[in-house]
């Protein structure tokens, strides 16, 4: 006896619609979209020009593209393909701001001694690959979202529920940039996604396109901390004559102890799909121009990723206990700290309709049982979507392979996209959207 069909399996008609839409996809169009996006710089806080271009692309495809300004420089783009009102709606979402800026004045020397070609907002096409700032993450993923929606519109599929596209500003984990006259502090951390939903771009389900060729239904949150290590302002010529308490040297003790604690924290919270990590991200103390003096203060910033099963209040207490243990072991330290940012980790039930539809799409494309990626520590705007009440699945592209124009490292993974991977992602998004937006709404 054959197994009964899965409740999320496509009907023969839906499969024909998927095939019709996928026949509208092309590597040429995806390359055009990626190149167009890369060539318009969009560092966090300055996404307006790219949002305007994307809205034009959506509008030209019949998706009622719109620009949604947050201020005079920052904006989202969104579009809608209307259904007949008898089904449930789906939001396909991707952020559009880049992790780094692409300007040596802001990125160097912290990114390295100079900007490589892939760190600059100028696209280069190398066969199946496009290289340039953000070409994969987020712009290749955003291109796949746009291409999938365009293909569904071009195929003329009769949707029951609306298909929405959201391309959001401020998706990167950053506070405001103190550069180029930017003054708003809340330009990152999902501000565009939050504003998009707040202003009525809403759906029954959401899929976010971010890296990783597997469906994810949960991810880490993040808590940021500022740790202040205090010492005494003094002079090198008086070190042997007066009390000597160097805040920078004491900060090194705190940093070393925290770096030893982070793996223990991660091990204690690794479960489900997540393995939350921590890092010391920056150190500030003293005057570089005045190497003769010690500083009375050194500041350390910490990013501590959090499990969906931990609240920010619990994480704050756990971090405080770690600092207290460090001070108990090193009583010469004078340390205080505060939590400066909190975005909870989130979870969508694996049996939610959007997750099962996304898993079914993955299995249809791969021809095998879905294999989730575990031990994740990356946070995305999926946390904003879920915290606002939208059941959300995440799906993205795999890493670049050995035939890429440059070897894989962290920046290359962000800045080089394999168009073949983007095409596979677009097919997945088409499959998921057809599955959800062409079915009759389930009575509540």
From TrEMBL:
InterPro entries on file: Bact_exopeptidase_dim_dom, Peptidase_M20A
Keywords, alphabetical: Hydrolase, Metal-binding
Highest taxon above the source species: Bacteria
Cited SUPFAM superfamilies: Bacterial exopeptidase dimerisation domain, Zn-dependent exopeptidases
Protein name in UniProt: M20/M25/M40 family metallo-hydrolase
Source species: Actinomycetospora termitidis
